[in-house]
Amino acid sequence: DRAEETATIQQWGTPVDIVSMEKGDARRLVAGNGTITYVDLEGGFYGIVADDGEQYLPLDLGETWLVDGMDVTFVAGVREDVAAIGQWGAPVDVIAIDKAGSATFVAENGTVTYIDLEGGFYGIIADGGRHYLPLGLEERYRVDGMRIAFAGKIARGIVTIQQWGTPVEILAVPWACSSCGGSAGIANPAA
What is the mean pLDDT of the chain? Predict the structure, then answer.
């Protein structure tokens, strides 16, 4: 609520009284290459040691991947709400996993953008500046200006008429906010 009859020393902005604050649904995503590792603690379990040294404790690693020393590429959502008995690595939900070299996964935050080329289409401009052409982006996320966290698999050997961005098959969208961007709110500016 707007704070009436309030003076501040900052002399910037409109004073407000914060009525409530809620934690958002944003989930941190991780993607990379790593090695499946058997950890002999608390009865033993399998984890992933990423190439950057980070340790991840998959909560849902399928039996196929329970091979000590297997090199993999993966994308996962970090679970901040889970405490693991092993106290080893960050607990994660695996979104996708494959043998190293077989696939390239990405985990990014960015902004959905309507691109008015070749009849118009939606792209995602990642916070780091990379451009992605989302394949399989659900209609509900096709909103110009929508902030989004997504996990995807880079599409290889594909040709598109858009000639814009890196084609990526969208695997998961754990967080999206249509009111967090500057020009959000319209599903198709050309309509």
Answer: 84
Degrees (nearest 5) of the Cα angle 111, 114, 119? 155
Locate 123 and state its tokens: 């792209």
- Compute the CA torsion angle 175, 177, 182, 187 (nearest 10 deg): 110
Structure tokens that stand for 77 in this block: 């959502």
- Residue 181, CA distances (Å) to 77, 95, 106, 137 in order: 23, 26, 22, 18
**% of the chain surpassing 90 pLDDT:** 61
Q: Which amino acid is at 73?
A: T
Cα(73)–Cα(52) distance, integer angstroms: 13
CA distances from 96 to 28, 89, 102, 137 (A): 15, 18, 12, 17
Using alpha carbons, list the distances in angstroms from residue 134 to 31, 94, 142, 144, 179: 17, 20, 10, 13, 21
